[in-house]
Design goal:
By secondary structure, the chain is an all-alpha fold. The radius of gyration is 18 Å and the shape is elongated.
Length: 186
């Protein structure tokens, strides 16, 4: 079978993500369909859905993997600070950082805000559960968890705005957790 001309058939997450980000910058998030992304990446729609459940998941995939790891660590009884700082360890510039810095151009500001809130709430639930397991009363656990989760997302936004790769997410996260009074988390 002879190779196909043009962009090689790709099925990698990175190729699909790159194609999507190009299109989001060119025509906006809302005006870009999954079919557009698949066509640009040189894959079928089904290949897109093998890697991503939605356009939104395409942007948040790397961060979601880290939140999954953090919530798993919390469920296993790891200290909250350790689990949360693990989110920042080795976090490299990705499609989320690009979307944050180009939110207006991509027409994605409201979508990012909505998705940010969902992830913040998910992380806060996991932290609150860990805090309650450690004997912290429900009100205190919920408040502390909300502040901690807010600090994580605020640090990611500050990192992206400061130029991912030029700023240190781990240092920003440590500052954010400290500013939120989270030094005493269990």
């Amino acid at each position: 079978m002879a190779p196909h001309p043009g962009r090689p058939k790709a099925s990698s997450r990175e190729t699909i993500t790159e194609a999507a980000c190009e299109l989001f910058l060119e025509q906006g998030y809302a005006n870009t369909s999954v079919a557009d992304i698949a066509r640009r990446a040189g894959v079928g729609r089904s290949s897109f859905f093998n890697y991503f459940e939605s356009k939104s998941a395409l942007l948040w995939g790397g961060f979601d993997e880290r939140v999954d790891a953090a919530t798993g660590a919390l469920a296993d009884g790891r200290p909250v600070g350790e689990a949360l700082t693990g989110i920042a360890t080795g976090f490299a510039p990705d499609s989320l950082a690009l979307a944050i810095t180009h939110a207006e151009t991509m027409g994605i500001a409201e979508e990012l805000e909505r998705e940010r809130a969902l992830r913040q709430a998910r992380l806060a639930r996991a932290v609150a559960e860990r805090e309650r397991t450690a004997g912290v009363d429900r009100l205190s656990a919920d408040v502390r968890a909300a502040a901690a989760a807010g600090a994580v997302l605020a640090a990611v936004w500050a990192w992206a705005d400061g130029g991912p790769g030029r700023t240190d997410l781990a240092a920003l996260l440590a500052r954010a957790l400290h500013a939120a009074g989270q030094d005493a988390l269990t």
